[in-house]
């Protein structure tokens, strides 16, 4: 947990006032508490997590539940309006900007996005349903993504369309 926290802090330019640092610290704590055995020791930590999560939601406007699978170095660029479903999977080195939603297409229908490594998601973008976003893809501002986006592609529009596709170099794919 502490290695991940240090990495998250460095990802946010070592600035303790960036809301992304707060959100990631509460997220990492929430994931870590599941490892505590026995259950009677975990319960007070779970209660503390719930209060911290609500506090960070109010202060930062970002909802990142600990059930979400987040890779390393998630960068949350801007304050507010970010909602992420607990079923979402996020890869390494992903960048999120304000107003992003990663979630289910409809309530009660299973299937959340899987975001690859090094994906850049623009402000106001919505990625909904069981879609896969390939490594190195760029999702344009205010795009509504309802289908898979290949690696290295640019997706823009409502609904999103693939505008250009570049093949990642060997170094990027590694």
UniProtKB/TrEMBL annotation:
It is an enzyme of class 2 (transferase). It holds the Pfam family Hexapep. InterPro entries: Hexapep, Hexapep_transf_CS, LbH_SAT, Ser_O-AcTrfase, Trimer_LpxA-like_sf. It comes from the Bacteria. Transmembrane segments: none annotated. PROSITE patterns: HEXAPEP_TRANSFERASES (PS00101). It catalyses: L-serine + acetyl-CoA = O-acetyl-L-serine + CoA. Keywords: Acyltransferase, Repeat, Transferase. Gene3D superfamilies: Hexapeptide repeat proteins. Its EC number is 2.3.1.30. PANTHER family: SERINE ACETYLTRANSFERASE. Belongs to the transferase hexapeptide repeat family. This is Serine acetyltransferase. It comes from Roseateles albus.
